[in-house]
Design brief:
two-stranded parallel sheet, about 230 residues, five-stranded parallel beta sheet, 12 helices, alpha/beta
Length: about 230
C-alpha cells in the first residue's frame, strides 16, 4: 500500500505548492489504499504563514482553492485511507487527518491536535465546516470549532478529531488500513461514495469570495500571521 508523506519547511506547513502536490499525490495512487503521515516528528503545523503574509487577494483565493482541492481528493478517495498523526496536527493539518477514513494519533501527550482558526480570526471555508459537521459528534462540534483549542491526543480522540490513540501508532495505522483494504474494493468504494455524497457541499459555498476571502486577505489577518511568526 502507498504512503504519502507531508514534507515541507515550517513543520510541514501547507503552502499552495504543498497542497497542490498533495492532491496530485492522491491522484497518482490510482484509487489504491494509502497512509498519510508527516515527515519528521510533526504531522502538519497548518498553513504556511510565511507564504500567507505575502499573498495578494488572488493568491489567497488560489490558496483556498488548493486547500479545497486537497480536501476533496482525500475525502472522496474511493479506496481506504489512514492518517498516522505522528506529531502536531494543527488547523489545516488537523483537517487533512479528518479527511481520512481512520486517523491514528501517537500517544505522546505533548502532541497538539485541533482546529484553531477561530482563535486566529479566520472563518472556516464552507467545505471545512461541512467536513467538521460530518466528522465530529454534535456535542463536540461547537467546542472544537468555536473553542478553537489545541488538544492532547486523548482529548482529540474524545472529541472525534482522531479515531485511535496508540503508543505504536504507525503499526496501528498500518493494521487499520490493511483491515479496511481487505474488504472487496468495489463494495467499499460504492458504500463510501454513497455515505459521503454531498457531505462537503454547503449553502455557504458562494460566500467564499464575498465574505471569507476578504477576511483571509485582510491587513488584520496579515498582522496576526506576522505576530504568530514573531512569537514562534
Amino acid at each position: 500500500m502507498d504512503r504519502i508523506v507531508l514534507s515541507a519547511p515550517g513543520k510541514n506547513a501547507l503552502s499552495i505548492a504543498v497542497l497542490e502536490r498533495l492532491r496530485r499525490d492522491v491522484e497518482t495512487t490510482h484509487g489504491e489504499p494509502f497512509l498519510l503521515t508527516g515527515a519528521g516528528d510533526v504531522f502538519c503545523a497548518g498553513l504556511n504563514l510565511k507564504e500567507l503574509v505575502t499573498l495578494d487577494v488572488a493568491g489567497v483565493q488560489r490558496l483556498l482553492e488548493a486547500l479545497d482541492g486537497a480536501v476533496d481528493a482525500l475525502f472522496h478517495h474511493p479506496a481506504p485511507t489512514a492518517a498516522w498523526v505522528n506529531g502536531h496536527a494543527i488547523a489545516g493539518g488537523c483537517v487533512l487527518a479528518m479527511c481520512c477514513d481512520v486517523a491514528v494519533a501517537s500517544s505522546d501527550p505533548r502532541i497538539r491536535i485541533g482546529l484553531n482558526e477561530t482563535a486566529l480570526g479566520l472563518p472556516l471555508p464552507p467545505r471545512i465546516t461541512a467536513l467538521a459537521r460530518h466528522r465530529l459528534p454534535p456535542g463536540a462540534l461547537e467546542r472544537v470549532v468555536m473553542g478553537a483549542g489545541l488538544h492532547s491526543p486523548q482529548e482529540a480522540r474524545t472529541l472525534g478529531l482522531v479515531d485511535l490513540v496508540a503508543d505504536d501508532a504507525a503499526a496501528v495505522a498500518d493494521d487499520a488500513l490493511a483491515r479496511l483494504a481487505s474488504h472487496p474494493r468495489a463494495a467499499y468504494a460504492r458504500n463510501k461514495r454513497q455515505l459521503r455524497a454531498g457531505a462537503l457541499t454547503s449553502p455557504e459555498d458562494g460566500q467564499i469570495v464575498s465574505e471569507i476571502l476578504p477576511v483571509w486577505s485582510s491587513l488584520e489577518t496579515r498582522n496576526r500571521a506576522l505576530a504568530a511568526l514573531n512569537a514562534s
